[in-house]
Design a protein that fits this description.
The complex is a heterotrimer of chains A (552), B (238) and C (177). Chain B has 6 helices and 10 strands; from the N terminus they run E-E-H-E-E-E-H-H-E-E-H-E-E-H-E-H. With 238 residues, chain B is of the alpha+beta class. In chain B, a hairpin with a 5-residue loop joins strand 6 and strand 7. Helices cover 34% and strands 21% of the residues of chain C. Chain C starts with a strand and ends in a 5-residue tail after the last helix. Chain C has one domain: 3-Layer(aba) Sandwich (Rossmann fold), CATH 3.40.50.700. With 177 residues, chain C is of the alpha/beta class. The chains are: A alpha/beta (552), B alpha+beta (238), C alpha/beta (177). At the A-B interface, helix 18, helix 19 and helix 20 of A face strand 4 and helix 2 of B.
Chain lengths: 552, 238, 177
């Protein structure tokens, strides 16, 4: 495979598409599929066949606006329909070339126009399982370019220059990580794609894997070339069956085209990828736990150093990056590091995909340049809080992050700024809460999550999160005391400072951040025995205490 | 006589200038110099897992606390092993352990010989501020010689490691996650029906009364884990 | 100097701590120069006095009666000392916690009773669902672990508390000592 061949394929796809007057793209991401977009596609296909219109129906990945699904995009008119079901099929087909079906039309200019799609540029436009579709949109050009025109060091240089940072949460500079693995002297090295996305309300990686899996594979192959690895693993949750199925298919396609395997693009470079299914443990997103899991061991983290870059999978130097990180690689190589660095802020470059959920009008997946304010994302792109309620807080970074209140909505989204306000970037989940959410209860929810997801290896995380959960439950039930609160804060300090891995070290964050901004809610529960949001069920004080003469 | 070049690192532990070989852990070097760092999951002769977090120390210039059992020495490192912050954390960790399961020292076979109990004393813990969890846990007395009482287990995994690394039987392992983690024999068989070789090493390395010898009565059950380094030395010598 | 008022109380415990307290033997007489025992299972006072300087409490809080008592004691005492592992940590009485009070009553009054199987319900106070150490109910000033704390521990600790000398409890005693 070389550039000419890629262009031939792209040209043939374009010719094929040009045969049709209209393209009917049906979103078949998990969100829309759950609303039977597969039946819709069949109905549309049948309707198109039966009609005199020259239309072609394509299955695509996620179009982003999951709340409005199933979605249908008509090209070249760029008409977007929402909440379409099979019964609308004939109407939609009949309208082709004429006036769009007004009742179904989704006009959300604001939602789409403010976004910048780099990672998601193909999502919703290509059939995720057709490698030719991907190639027609410049797919695999970056790999061919890297292999035929660039030295491994040049690749790393471009990545470093781009300023790309790990999209899994920590924000470690990707170029630096690649450089470390490249320098590690060993004949056998590994590349691992971390697709163990597990935060509540996060589905960025899932969508990328489902909508544009080749993009991830291309990123991994480029990374492997840069660091000198010959074997890759995609670690993906078994709860993502669609992603697994599409990945499996894509691996086969890529091998058939000679884009994976031996002598890729007629060079000596060999690289192949294997899928490993995670059993759904959140902690396996931690790189040492993930490695243990791939090795068939209990998914528990190990103390670092040694870092995986030095001693990782089977003790060999290993590069681990997140799905979204790999998805950013191909455009950087194609367009250059400088182009990527022109997006975003000084220290946080490029774009970030966010999954916006909770009390928000436009639930779904968005991609915005770093540096956009939270307000723009939530009120502009997200459409604000629905049903006349008022915004209270947004949780970023999942259970490891924190709640950000209204007063900080104008901060620019970047790794540093989010940490400054007591939260973190995380993998990109954004849960919006309105005045019907009790912040103590929210903290308790996240603590329950980390408590059950703790691996149980180190004491502060194993027993500490359980104790925190007990205390928060007490406070929610109205039986907490101010001493409990003090103890809770104390415990947060120990868990944060002494836990073995990131899960434990960040487990107290939801409590600390809600305490920082919503302490009054804790006090209301403890002192006045009432839940301001009306969420917690606080019973009247137990009768047994009433007859005690003197209470302390 | 030939001399072997040794990569020597000099560092400061608690204000004391000490020298160490490259690759040594802070804990090893501290103990060689009679500086005590509390540990629970660490045991000389077994691999280190860095799980109990009691041995965390402060390193000058590093905001993070490092577990001394796995952190290796570096040239010019300045280590502090006892500070108010560390003592507070160590006490809290011990409190977490005492509150996690049912540790009733007065009726335990290991009363007076228990590492958890003596750590509480040495770290100045007089009471547990956290609410006791009081879980209902099993006691497996199916083995003809030994008993495992999960009420007293602190999940240090010394038994797991000694069985896998030294005895080579790998009878013990950990089941479940988080607060529900449990030590199990084989695939959660009764200990008496498991592939146990009856060597008793796990009993000797258990820091509490979770694993004990049925022939001992009352609290007359001191344990002797010191055989491990000796055994390893003898095996290496062969 | 007027003598300090000392009270000792027995909640859910075995009285072992009181025995050990008495094991101070002749040192009790020395102690009597500094304190008056105003309330104790070993003296005749029926009501807890209004103003007590030092209250030594043995036993965990296991019944509604214990809870009522400990709150009253706290309200009327300047210094509250948790005496022994039951008061400090729950100890043996708390071993029923994983099973609950009903299971314990059934075992004691039905399964193991030969005659007149019945669970006492008059006069005796109702059991709490879980047995807890006293500091989970009221503020405790000094913790003296041990099962029981030794007579020497009592002597050293009380002398220090009376005279205001420094007191290093972990050097004296431990859980289960």
């Amino acid at each position: 495979m070389n550039i000419e061949e890629l262009e031939q394929i792209a040209e043939s796809v374009r010719l094929e598409n040009a045969k049709f007057d209209h393209e009917i793209n049906v979103c078949m991401g998990t969100g829309c599929l759950s609303q039977h977009s597969d039946k819709l596609r069949d109905a549309l296909t049948a309707a198109a066949k039966a009609s005199d219109k020259n239309a072609f129906v394509r299955r695509t990945g996620c179009m982003g606006l999951c709340a409005a699904g199933p979605l249908v995009l008509i090209d070249p008119e760029e008409t977007l329909y929402q909440h379409v079901n099979a019964s609308h099929a004939e109407e939609v087909v009949a309208s082709l070339g004429g006036k769009p079906v007004a009742a179904l039309q989704c006009d959300l200019r604001e939602h789409f126009d403010q976004q910048v799609h780099v990672v998601l540029e193909n999502s919703g436009h290509i059939d995720p399982e057709k490698i030719d579709d991907y190639i027609a949109r410049d797919g695999y050009q970056a790999l061919v370019k890297a292999l035929t025109e660039m030295e491994p060091n040049d690749v790393i240089k471009q990545i470093t220059e781009s300023g790309l940072r790990g999209r899994g949460g920590g924000g470690y500079p990707t170029g630096l990580k690649w450089g470390m693995v490249a320098k590690a002297g060993h004949d056998l090295k590994y590349v691992i794609c971390n697709g163990d996305e597990g935060d509540p309300g996060a589905f960025m990686d899932r969508s990328v894997l489902e909508s544009d899996p080749h993009r991830v594979l291309e990123g991994m192959a480029i990374a492997a070339y840069a660091v000198g690895a010959s074997k890759g693993y995609v670690y993906v949750r078994a709860e993502y069956p669609l992603a697994v199925a599409r990945l499996t298919n894509c691996l086969r396609e890529a091998r058939r085209r000679g884009l994976l395997g031996n002598n890729i693009c007629n060079t000596p470079f060999a690289f192949d990828v294997e899928i490993r299914l995670g059993a759904g443990a959140f902690v396996c997103g931690e790189e040492t736990a993930l490695i243990a899991s791939i090795q068939g061991q209990r998914g528990t983290p190990k103390p670092r150093p040694p870092y995986p870059a030095v001693s990782g999978l089977w003790g060999k130097p290993t590069l681990i990056n997140n799905v979204e990180t790999f998805a950013n690689v191909a455009p950087i190589i194609r367009k250059g590091g400088k182009w990527f660095a022109s997006l975003g802020t000084e220290k946080s470059k490029g774009t970030k995909v966010f999954a916006i959920t909770g009390k928000i009008t436009n639930t779904g997946l968005v991609e915005v340049p770093m540096g956009m304010t939270l307000r723009q994302i939530i009120e502009g792109i997200g459409g604000g809080v629905p049903d006349g309620h008022t915004f209270k807080a947004v949780q970023t970074g999942g259970p490891s992050g924190g709640c950000i209140p209204n007063e900080f909505l104008d901060i620019e989204v970047s790794y540093e700024s989010l940490i400054q306000v007591g939260s973190m970037m995380g993998s990109g989940g954004m849960i919006v809460m309105d005045d019907t959410s009790c912040m103590v209860n929210v903290a308790r929810f996240f603590l329950e999550f980390v408590m059950t997801e703790s691996c149980g290896k180190c004491i502060p995380c194993r027993a500490g999160t359980a104790q925190m959960h007990t205390m928060l439950t007490r406070i929610c039930a109205g039986s907490g005391t101010m001493d409990d609160l003090e103890l809770l804060v104390d415990l947060c300090g120990t868990i944060k400072e002494t836990s073995l891995c990131g899960l434990g070290q960040t487990a107290p964050n939801p409590v600390l951040s809600t305490l920082r901004y919503f302490k009054n809610e804790y006090i209301e529960h403890i002192v006045h025995k009432r839940c301001p949001a009306g969420v917690c069920d606080i019973q009247a004080p137990a009768a047994a205490h009433v007859d005690v003469e003197v209470l302390v | 006589m030939t001399t072997v070049a040794v990569d020597v690192k000099t560092l400061v532990i608690d204000g004391q200038n000490v020298s160490a070989r490259a690759g040594q852990t802070i804990l090893e070097v501290a103990r060689e110099n009679s500086i005590d760092i509390p540990t629970l999951c660490h045991l000389d002769g077994l691999s280190d897992v860095g799980a109990c977090r009691l041995c965390v120390v402060e390193i000058k210039g590093n905001n993070k606390l490092l577990p001394a059992c796995v952190a290796t020495v570096e040239e010019g490192m300045e280590v502090t092993t006892t500070t108010e912050r560390l003592t507070k954390h160590r006490r809290t960790i011990l409190e977490l352990l005492f509150a996690e399961r049912n540790h009733i020292c007065s009726v335990c076979v290991s009363n007076g010989h228990c590492e958890l109990q003596s750590l509480a004393q040495s770290q100045g813990l007089t009471h547990v501020r956290l609410p006791y969890r009081n879980p209902q846990l099993a006691v497996d007395a199916s083995h003809e010689r030994f008993t495992i009482d999960h009420n007293r287990c602190i999940l240090c995994t010394r038994c797991v490691r000694v069985c896998a690394e030294i005895e080579g039987a790998h009878v013990w392992d950990v089941m479940g996650r988080g607060i529900d983690s449990m030590i199990i024999s084989d695939l959660h068989e009764e200990w008496g029906k498991s592939s146990c070789t009856r060597c008793g090493k796990c009993v000797q390395v258990c820091p509490t009364g979770a694993l004990f010898d049925k022939s001992k009565i009352g609290s007359d059950h001191p344990k002797y884990p010191d055989f491990l380094p000796y055994l390893n030395l003898m095996r290496e010598a062969q | 100097m007027s003598k300090l008022k000392l009270a000792t109380v027995w909640l859910d415990g075995c009285s072992g701590c009181h025995m050990s307290f008495l094991d101070m033997d002749e040192r009790l007489i020395e102690l009597a120069d500094f304190v008056d025992v105003v309330y104790s299972p070993i003296v005749d006072t029926k009501e807890f006095p209004d103003e007590v300087d030092i209250a030594l409490v043995e036993g965990a809080v296991a019944s509604v009666d214990d809870e009522r008592k400990i709150r009253k004691i706290r309200a009327h005492s300047k210094m509250l000392i948790a005496m022994g592992d039951c008061a400090v940590a729950g100890n043996v009485p708390s071993m029923r916690n994983p099973f609950g009070p009903q299971a314990i009553l059934d075992r004691a009054y039905f399964e193991n009773a030969d005659l007149q199987q019945q669970i006492p319900c008059v006069v005796v106070p109702q059991l709490l669902k879980v047995v807890r150490p006293i500091h989970e109910f009221v503020k405790v000033d000094v913790f003296l672990p041990g099962c029981p704390p030794s007579a020497d521990t009592f002597h050293t600790a009380l002398t220090a508390l009376i005279t205001g000398a420094p007191l290093d409890i972990p050097a004296l005693t431990r859980f289960g000592a």
